[in-house]
Structure formats: structure tokens, C-alpha cells
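Input (structure):
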């Protein structure tokens, strides 16, 4: 992995940035001092703004290390942090990162958490080079699992009585997003090369949208032997993104047991069973032959001796 540290990231509604000492009051009142937000965390609600400020002082020093990834989730409309998202642990040998996040309860169910998580996943896997980003969560906190699933993290299983938080001993769900082995190679296949440059961002309607990178559009142009003007490339990027969005919608439909209502061509069996008859009809055929020999036609010579 190529560690880049906590870089500023931006989405449609959020700015993901480093924490500063000035964030103490917003952090305390938005989530760190709220027992409802810290219910499924391993640390107690902080007692005061001063306690939060002490945490931030420590965090600011940790930003000196490129291996530190901790973002304040700032809502652009109010220009203050409403939550946090961070890398809790790093395994260099497996290119693996564990991620953690939390958002103030006033901002739940608005899509802010999944919007932040989707952007951080893009950064960690697309720029830092993480091959696996995973997270653990209390299975009673089902909303956390839904956020991960929305961002493409797949649930891998449950560890029974393997965790502890402010509610006691709990079962832990494990979810992860993994880069395929082919994408991690130096010479990926064309399809994988393209998928590695397609990211998702949160739209105004709270749904994830596909975004095609300039590199992908250039690569598609090379494959199709097309020379696109900047205007044509932008139009093609939008068309490709719209198609992928529509495919995502179709993939969400449960079509189990549903037969197609129509077909492009009529569904008819053009084959028939073999009809067996007696004989091959050779006798009737040879009946009109002018000359026959040994059950076949005798053809006169066309070239003389």
C-alpha cells in the first residue's frame, strides 16, 4: 500500500477533513457526549467539551503519520462535523484495513454515513491500494450493517459473543469489500481495468450513482478505435453512468421464480420427432430407371473407350 495520510475528500454534501481543536464543541454535542450514539461503541460518552478537546489534541499529533486515516465528516450546509470515520487497524501483509464510523443521531437516516463511507472506500482502495477494507459491528446495530451493504461491503459472517461494547458481550457481524485478485495484478483484464475506474457517489436523492473516470472513457475510446472530442467524451461518460445506474436498479429486483412474459422471437419448437417408415423407397425410385444394376442406376459412359 502507498500510505497518503488523511487527505481532504469531498462529496456532494460532505467534506471529509482532518479534525482540529476547534471541533471540540461540535464533536461533543453532536455525538461524543451522547449515550445513544456511543451505545454500541467501546468507550463511554465523554463527560465534557474539555474531555473531547483532550482527545482532539492527541489526534492532531497522530496526523503526522502517513498511516493515520481519521476524518471529520463535515456537513457543508452547517460547516461543522457531524461524525467521524477512521481506519482502526492496518495489516500490511494482507493489504487490509479495518474501518470504523459514527454519526450524530440528529443526522441519522439522511444517507450521510453511506455517502462518507463510499468516498473513503474509493480513496483507500483506489488511491492507497488497500485490497480489503472490512468492519465489525454489533449485530443488534443493524443500521450499521445496512450502511456497509449499501456501499458494496458484503457480510462475511457472525462471530458469536466475540465483542464487547457499552451494552455488554455481543455477537459481531463482519462485512468487507475486497478487490479481486485480477485487479491487483500489474496487467489487469480490460473489464477489470474499467471497473477499477468506476466509482459511486451519493446523489441528491440519497442513492449511490456511478461515475465514470476520464481514464476509463479514454480506455474505452482506444478499445473502440474512436477519437472522441471533449464534448463527445462527456456525453459518453454520462450515457455509460446512466446505463450502469439502470443495471444496478435491475439487480435490486428479486425475480426468483418469475418466468419471462415475452420473448424477442416466438418460442416455438422447430424440431420434430423422426418418422420411421418401412424401407428407404429405393424400389419405387428404381422402377422408372432405364437401366439398373445391383439395386442402383446404371449410368452410360460419357467417354468412349
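Output (sequence):
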Amino acid at each position: 500500500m502507498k500510505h497518503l495520510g488523511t487527505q481532504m475528500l469531498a462529496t456532494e454534501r460532505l467534506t471529509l477533513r482532518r479534525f482540529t481543536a476547534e471541533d471540540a464543541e461540535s464533536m461533543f454535542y453532536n455525538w461524543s457526549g451522547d449515550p445513544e450514539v456511543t451505545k454500541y461503541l467501546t468507550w463511554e460518552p465523554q463527560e465534557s467539551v474539555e474531555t473531547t478537546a483532550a482527545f482532539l489534541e492527541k489526534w492532531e499529533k497522530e496526523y503526522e503519520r502517513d498511516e493515520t486515516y481519521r476524518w471529520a465528516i463535515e456537513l457543508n450546509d452547517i460547516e461543522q462535523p457531524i461524525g467521524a470515520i477512521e481506519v482502526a487497524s492496518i495489516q500490511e501483509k494482507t493489504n487490509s484495513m479495518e474501518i470504523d464510523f459514527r454519526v450524530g443521531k440528529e443526522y441519522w437516516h439522511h444517507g450521510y454515513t453511506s455517502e462518507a463511507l463510499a468516498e473513503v472506500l474509493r480513496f483507500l482502495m483506489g488511491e492507497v491500494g488497500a485490497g480489503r477494507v472490512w468492519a465489525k459491528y454489533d449485530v443488534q446495530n443493524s443500521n450499521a450493517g445496512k450502511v456497509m451493504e449499501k456501499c458494496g461491503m458484503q457480510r462475511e459472517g457472525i462471530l458469536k459473543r466475540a465483542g464487547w461494547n457499552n451494552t455488554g458481550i455481543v455477537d459481531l457481524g463482519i462485512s468487507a469489500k475486497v478487490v479481486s485478485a485480477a485487479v491487483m495484478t500489474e496487467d489487469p483484464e480490460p473489464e477489470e481495468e474499467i471497473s477499477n475506474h468506476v466509482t459511486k457517489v451519493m446523489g441528491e436523492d440519497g442513492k449511490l450513482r456511478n461515475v465514470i473516470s476520464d481514464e476509463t472513457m479514454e480506455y474505452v475510446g482506444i478499445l473502440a478505435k474512436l477519437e472522441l472530442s471533449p464534448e463527445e467524451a462527456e456525453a459518453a461518460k454520462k450515457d455509460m453512468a446512466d446505463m450502469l445506474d439502470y443495471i444496478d436498479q435491475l439487480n435490486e429486483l428479486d425475480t426468483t421464480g418469475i418466468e419471462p412474459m415475452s420473448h424477442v422471437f416466438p418460442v416455438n419448437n422447430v424440431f420434430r420427432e423422426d418418422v420411421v417408415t418401412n424401407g428407404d423407397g429405393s424400389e419405387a425410385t428404381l422402377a422408372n430407371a432405364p437401366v439398373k444394376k445391383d439395386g442402383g442406376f446404371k449410368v452410360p459412359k460419357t467417354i468412349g473407350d
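Notes: The radius of gyration is 32 Å. The CA atoms of residues 88 and 294 lie 92 Å apart.
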